[in-house]
Amino acid sequence: MEFGVVLQNNPPAREVVRLASLAEDMGFTYGWTWDSHILWQEPFVIFTLLLEGTNHMKVGPMVTNPGTRDWTVLASLFATLDEMFEDRMVCGMGRGDSALRFIGKKPYTLASTEEAIKVIKGLVAGQEVDYNGQKLQITWVREGHDLPVWMAGYGPKALTMTGRIADGFILQLADPYLTEWTTKFVKSAAQDAGRHPDDVKVCVAAPAYVGDDLPHQRDQVRWFGGMVGNHVADLVERYGDDPDKVPTELADYIKDRQDYDYRHHGAVGNPTTDFVPDNVVDRFCVLGPVGDHIAKIRELEAVGVDQFCVYLMHDQQEETLRHYGESIIPAFR
Q1: Which of 64, 190, 218, 302 would be 163's cystine partner, CB 3.0–4.6 Å?
Q2: Residue 240 confidence (pLDDT)
Q3: Both 30 and 170 in a single domain?
Q4: Domain count, the chain
Q5: How far is CA 147 from CA 131, 262, 276, in A?
């Protein structure tokens, strides 16, 4: 089991770097950040500082999308940083939620997202690709380099695409049952595509908060259920209440969901996440004392999770990193 941390690019940027460096010291091997360029600072600028301020940590967005930047710009950014810092970049990819919706655009289709992944990976590898009717090749990259792309998703079509083309699968919730349900789609699609199912790594990303005051912890991370609810609402709109395509455990909890205010996206106390009940917070997040964290991560490990990634948006950031480094990560070594 590997461990990652997700940080928001709130100013000052040096504080983001400090937390990433502390996380590496505590045994975290992946450092991710959000990527919504209006809500927070520009991640690819901060990635340079993160890579410079850490020694071995893999770094990347959780997640970027095909619509904020031109695909060739994304490819050049990843390739440049990999050349500068010895292949330590990783690309988390999604269709675009807060980054696009907040500026009045719609998320990209899965077909366009798949095409973008192929173009970006091809360019970073030094291959010739077709883009906008042009044959393009980045000639200054090291030929054959493979940029790892981890795809985030919840629904059957996104999960199937992930298994077919991605290097990893990102699931943004820490419920063992839902992890197993989604992972089956990914692994089955990988096998159908002639790949070994284990070639697609699984990352579960969720808030983790170590402590004994459970009501306070729940209030600190309730925002996460609202964030996940945005994606679930998309699924319910597309598939209805078909439990084969949208698990009842997901569809039921958003029935009282109303408008969502992206100005408070990923923020403690988000006023549009009051609909998220305590039991959903408990299922989606990892809360309680150290022993409860170890037990839940063991459950996730048992259903095939390769990386547990901590969303660190709450009022005990440094303390949580230290609990993980001193007590939780060593339990998996």
Answers
A1: 190
A2: 85
A3: yes
A4: 2
A5: 18, 30, 36
